[in-house]
Specification:
The structure is a single chain. The chain is mainly alpha-helical and about 300 residues long. The protein has one domain. Helix content is about 80%, strand content about 0%. The chain has 13 helices and no strands. Helix 1 packs antiparallel against helix 10, helix 1 crosses helix 12 and helix 6 runs antiparallel to helix 13.
Length: about 300
C-alpha cells in the first residue's frame, strides 16, 4: 500500500511537472530545428520505444485494419495537427502563453460534446465557460502581443490546435483501438510520425543530424522523447486506473502554471500583470469545468 502511494505521488509529479515543462523544451528545440522535422523525429522515436516496451511486457501487438485506421486518425488530430502545428506556432508566441491557450481544451471539449452528443451544460460548466471566455479575451487582447510580428497568427493556429486535440479526445472516446494503452499510443505515434515526415518533405525542411544540434536542443529532445512521451504517458495511464478521473484531470490547470513560470525563469519570457490576472481567471474556469459532476 505504501509503495502504491509513492507510485501515485511520482505519477502526479510526472503529469504535472514533466508535461508542464514540455512547452519550454519544445520552444528551445524549435528555435533551432524545423518544427515538423522536430516533431516527426520525436514521435517516431517514442513510438518505436513504446512498441518495444509493449513487446517486452508481452502485450498483444496485433492490430486490425479498423484499429489501425482509427490510430492514424487519432494520431493526426492529437499529434500531427494538435502537437506538430502547435510546435510550429511556438516560433511566434512564448511557451507559457501557448500553454495557457492550451488550457482551454476542456472548454472546447464541452462545446464539441454539446454539438455532437447534445449533452446539456451543467451550472458549473456554464460558470467555467464564462470565466474561460473572459480569461481568454484578457489574454489575447494585450497590446504588446497584438502588435508583435506573427503573434496573432501564432495565437489563431494554437487555438485551432486545441480544437484539433479536443476533437481527437471526443473521437478516441468512441473509437475502436487496441486494448493496450502502450500499443495504441505506440501505433498513434508511428502513424503521426510518418505523416509528419511527409509534411516535413512537402515544406522542404532541412534535416539536421542530432550530432550537429546544440547541447540544449539535444537535452530538450531527450526529455521530450523519454520523459514527455513515455514516462509521463505511462504515469497518466497508471493514474487513470488507480485515482479518480477528476483528480487526474487537474493537470489541465497545473501544466500551464508550470509552463508559465518555467518560461519566465529559463527563457526570460515576460509575465505581464494582465497575463497573470487572465491566467487566474482562465484556470479557475478550467477548474469549474473539470470538477463538474459526471453524468
Amino acid at each position: 500500500m505504501k509503495n502504491n502511494k509513492l507510485l501515485i505521488i511520482a505519477a502526479f509529479f510526472s503529469i504535472y511537472f514533466i508535461w508542464g515543462s514540455t512547452y519550454v523544451f519544445n520552444k528551445i528545440a524549435v528555435t533551432e530545428l524545423p518544427p515538423f522535422f522536430l516533431v516527426a523525429l520525436r514521435f517516431l522515436t517514442a513510438g518505436v520505444l513504446m512498441i518495444f516496451l509493449a513487446f517486452l511486457l508481452k502485450h498483444d501487438l496485433s492490430i486490425k485494419k479498423k484499429e489501425l485506421l482509427n490510430s492514424a486518425i487519432a494520431g493526426f488530430f492529437f499529434l500531427v495537427y494538435g502537437n506538430g502545428v502547435f510546435v510550429w506556432a511556438l516560433k511566434y508566441v512564448d511557451s507559457g502563453f501557448g500553454a495557457l491557450l492550451a488550457s482551454t481544451q476542456p472548454l472546447f471539449v464541452l462545446f464539441l460534446l454539446r454539438l455532437i452528443d447534445r449533452k446539456p451544460l451543467q451550472k458549473k460548466s456554464m460558470i467555467g465557460v464564462a470565466l474561460g471566455i473572459v480569461g481568454m479575451y484578457l489574454l489575447v487582447s494585450q497590446q504588446e502581443l497584438t502588435t508583435s510580428k506573427g503573434s496573432l497568427l501564432g495565437i489563431f493556429m494554437i487555438l485551432t490546435c486545441v480544437l484539433s486535440w479536443s476533437y481527437g479526445s471526443v473521437f478516441v472516446s468512441k473509437a475502436v483501438l487496441p486494448k493496450s494503452h502502450l500499443v495504441s499510443t505506440g501505433y498513434q505515434m508511428l502513424c503521426a510520425g510518418t505523416i509528419l515526415v511527409i509534411a516535413s518533405f512537402i515544406f522542404k525542411e532541412e534535416w539536421v543530424s542530432p550530432l550537429a544540434w546544440s547541447t540544449n536542443v539535444q537535452i530538450s529532445m531527450f526529455i521530450l522523447i523519454v520523459f514527455g512521451g513515455i514516462v509521463a504517458f505511462t504515469a497518466f495511464n497508471f493514474l487513470l486506473k488507480n485515482v479518480a478521473t477528476e483528480k487526474v484531470s487537474t493537470s489541465a490547470y497545473v501544466n500551464p502554471v508550470i509552463a508559465l513560470f518555467m518560461g519566465w525563469f529559463f527563457l526570460n519570457e515576460k509575465l505581464s500583470t494582465q497575463s497573470l490576472i487572465a491566467s487566474g481567471i482562465l484556470l479557475t474556469g478550467v477548474y469549474f469545468i473539470t470538477s463538474r459532476k459526471r453524468k
